[in-house]
Write a structure and sequence with these properties.
Blueprint lengths: L2 H16 L8 E4 L3 H10 L8 E4 L2 H9 L7 H4 L2 E6 L3 E2 L5 E2 L6 H9 L1 E9 L12 E5 L4 H10 L3 E4 L10 E6 L6 H9 L4 E4 L1 E2 L6 E6 L2 E6 L2
Parallel strand pairs: 1-2, 1-3, 3-6, 6-12
Antiparallel strand pairs: 4-5, 5-11, 7-9, 7-10, 8-9, 12-13
Subunit structure: Homodimer.
Catalytic activity: aldehydo-D-ribose 5-phosphate = D-ribulose 5-phosphate
Function: Catalyzes the reversible conversion of ribose-5-phosphate to ribulose 5-phosphate.
Length: 224
């Protein structure tokens, strides 16, 4: 199976996971990226079975609206029962690296408001140790050089993601060659640097369910 076919398989599996729980007042939290897009596309035909969605990016909001799904502001909604999103890396504890598409901050906010975080990923995203994928850090623009120097002190090789401005008007630094031994501690440590908005480690609040696309089928892991 190709990577795209594996992504489609986990998008299907996520639809099967949430469909029994959809009610007229359900508002879903929706992630960002190519895997989340496949999930959004499958939500379109179900739009009459739930109320709407909160999106973690302008791109996902636009895609949802094009399918006739109402998009709400998170502040209007409060909590969401499910947050469904992809990942750049995920480990056995369902800690993740996210933000390859620069949507990490809004993703982390919506995930924080979700009762269940369902991670959908093709098998290439599964790793024993996080850090092969460069860890994204969203920074306030004027703090970019300062934050980069602080990231060097932590052992990272920070690279400014040229030309990228997040939905929040900020910049992204990617941390290369930065293998992470303790994702929970490192997430908190990087977030304590002044000027950091957040970083792409989703460890303090990892996923609750992982749907991992493999050649022999979708493997489901549930921690909670
Ligand atoms: O900012 C982007 C998000 O964190 C995505 O969920 C992540 O990059 C995975 O994207 P994809 O499904 O395209 O691999």
């Amino acid at each position: 199976m190709t990577q795209d076919e594996l992504k489609a398989a986990v998008a299907d599996a996520a639809i099967n996971e949430i469909t029994p729980h959809l009610e007229k007042d359900t508002v879903l939290g929706i992630g960002t990226g190519s895997t989340a897009n496949l999930f959004i596309d499958r939500l379109g035909p179900l739009r009459d079975q739930f109320k709407g969605a909160v999106a973690s990016s302008e791109a996902s909001a636009e895609r949802l609206q094009k399918l006739g799904i109402e998009v709400f502001e998170l502040n209007q909604v409060g909590n969401v029962p499910f947050y469904i999103d992809g990942a750049d890396e995920v480990n056995a504890h369902l800690h993740m690296i996210k933000g390859g598409g620069a949507a990490l901050t809004r993703e982390k906010i919506v995930a924080a408001c979700a009762k269940h975080f369902i991670c959908i990923a093709d098998g290439s995203k599964y790793v024993a140790q996080l850090g092969h994928f460069p860890l994204p850090v969203e920074v306030i623009p004027m703090a970019r050089s300062y934050v980069a120097r602080e990231l060097v002190k932590l052992g990272a090789e920070p690279v400014y993601r040229q030309g990228v401005v997040t939905d929040n008007g900020n910049h992204i630094i990617d941390c290369f060659n930065f293998m992470i031994d303790d994702p929970v501690a490192m997430e908190a440590r990087i977030n304590s640097i002044v000027g950091v908005v957040t970083n792409g480690l989703f460890a303090a609040r990892g996923a609750d369910v992982l749907l991992l696309g493999k050649a022999d089928g979708v493997e489901r892991t549930a921690l909670r």
